[in-house]
Amino acid sequence: MPKSYVARLVYDRTHLSIAIVRKSLEVVGGITYRPFNHRRFAEIVFCAVSADRQVKGYGAHLMSHLKDYVKASSDIMHFLTCADNSAIGYFKKQGFTKEITLEKKVWMGYIKDYDGATLMQCSMLPRIRYLEMARMLLKQKECVHAKIRA
User: Fold this and answer.
1) Which listed residue (43, 99, 132, 142) is catalytic?
2) Higher-confidence residue: 92 or 114?
3) What per-residue confidence (pLDDT) applies to 10?
4) How far apart are CA 43 and CA 112, in angstroms?
5) Residue 43: active-site member
6) Does the domain at residues 3-149 carry the CATH identifier 1.20.1730.10?
7) By its UniProt entry, which SUPFAM superfamilies does this protein fall under (predicted)?
8) What are phi and psi of 109, to 5 degrees?
9) Could you please report the per-residue DSSP string of 71-109?
10) Which residue from 88, 86, 105, 84 is spatially nearest to 97, judged by alpha carbons?
11) pLDDT for position 7
């Protein structure tokens, strides 16, 4: 995508962004999204992590932050995104699916559909704190192992 297009959306007041920035003020990655509060969904427009920082957990951490922030600050419970082929695996790991359960009338005409991209959806669970999910799953695993050993 052209830099001018990316800059236009990032600075558009209808879009919001979240980023991971190191102490040296180096931007590691970010997500730009457009909330449709009255429709209870948001479109993830951009999701990027620096090439040298990929596959190190930054993208997963960023998405968990986004989910927790959006749930705490709005009534939004769903994300939609148009993922290119190289991003489908990442989005699947973050809980997105190609099965769109939101009614078309909720999102049709509100989000951009890109040629060659796959529409994906993530519905958030109200009682899950996504930033704590890894720790919670580890505790559950430890409990199961303890029961097996007992």
Assistant:
1) 43
2) 92
3) 79
4) 9
5) yes
6) no
7) Acyl-CoA N-acyltransferases (Nat)
8) 90, -5
9) HHHSS--EEEEEE-TTTHHHHHHTT-BS---S-HHHHTT
10) 88
11) 80
